[in-house]
Amino acid sequence: MVRWSVRGGGVIGPAPFLIAGVVNITPDSFYDGGRHYSLEAAAHHGLELLSQGAHILDLGGESTRPFSERVEADTEMDRVMPVLQKILKARPEATISVDTYKASVAARCLEAGACIINDISACRFDPQLLDVLVQYKPGYVLMHTLDRPESMQTDPRYRDVTREILSFFETHLARLVQAGIPESHIVLDPGIGFGKNLEHNLEIMRNMECFHILGRPLYVGLSYKSLWSGLLEVELEGRGMPTQVGTALMAAKQVGIHRVHDVADTANTLKIVENICS
Fold first, then answer.
1. 59 beta partners
2. What is the pLDDT of residue 68?
């Protein structure tokens, strides 16, 4: 069972699995190409994902796909804040996560009602983010990546990718807890597709159980990622089925939190796993 403590004393779960529905509020999303970029479209999409069974909405105002360009904090805030406010006005009980590594964006969104920060950087891109996390104590996604999105896929190399990510988690988990973030607020994301080639991604997935030794829930995003094209030679529209197969396999390995685009299909996938593997 997954239990995740978040800002304000809230707890998500206990539940066999949690679904984080992705709401990309960018003009260059790899998945939808900006289809949900406007306020109305993004808010409507988020509310629809909640109705389909999402436990969390993960709002993102800066694309972090490989080779994407950075955006300024004000631009990111202008994209995310109106959507966050509109969703919470319609569904005050909604659990909102903000996908950001910027301290200023995180602080303002937490003040506005978000309760989770999903950070690709482990507080390395903006060190002030750690101060924000200590102050607000949100739920926090500690993710592994080699470098920033614009350079992370330039010849990524590891001697042992699983051991190196495990060491990364041990180091940064200890640093966060020592700084004052309760361990119960932290979940671990190995960062599929972030500074990894196809074989790295597959090796991580094969060995996912290794990360359970740290005692924290695992948070994994496989949804529509390019690894499926690399493995199966399918285009974007052909990545839905392998996403569901991969999600089922990760759930069978006790990955508790799944960040996805297709919430309804994922809810069905996880129900099958729950009833067969429990």
1. 23, 98
2. 64
Measure Cα distances from 222 to 8, 52, 53, 269 in Å: 29, 19, 18, 14
| Residue 253 pLDDT | 97
**Cα–Cα distance between 68 and 131 in angstroms, integer?**
27
Is residue 84 exposed (0-12), middle (13-18) or buried (19+ Cβ within 10 Å)?
buried
* pLDDT < 70 stretches in the chain: 28-37, 67-68
- E strand segments, 126-262: 139-143, 186-189, 219-220, 257-260
In whole angstroms, give the CA distance from residue 136 to residue 19.
23
Which H helix or E strand runs over 171? helix 161-179
Domain residue limits, the chain: 2-277
The answer to whether 103 touches 132, Cβ cutoff 8 Å, is yes
225 belongs to the catalytic site: yes
SS3 for 151? coil
Within its chain, how far is the Cα of 37 from the centroid?
19
Contact present, 109 and 73 (Cβ < 8 Å) = no
Cα atoms in the 13 Å half-sphere on the side-chain side of 125? 20
pTM score, two decimals? 0.95
Burial 20-42, CB ≥16 within 10 A → b, else e: bbbbbbbeebbbbeeebbeeebb
Centre a 10 Å sphere on the Cβ of residue 52 and count the other Cβ atoms it contains. 15
CA distance 275 to 246: 17
Residue 93: its pLDDT value, please?
96
pLDDT score, position 66: 74
Q: H or E element: which one contains 56?
A: strand 56-60
CATH of domain 2-277: 3.20.20.20
**Catalytic residue check, 102:** no
Candidate list 102, 196, 216, 225, residue with the active-site label: 225
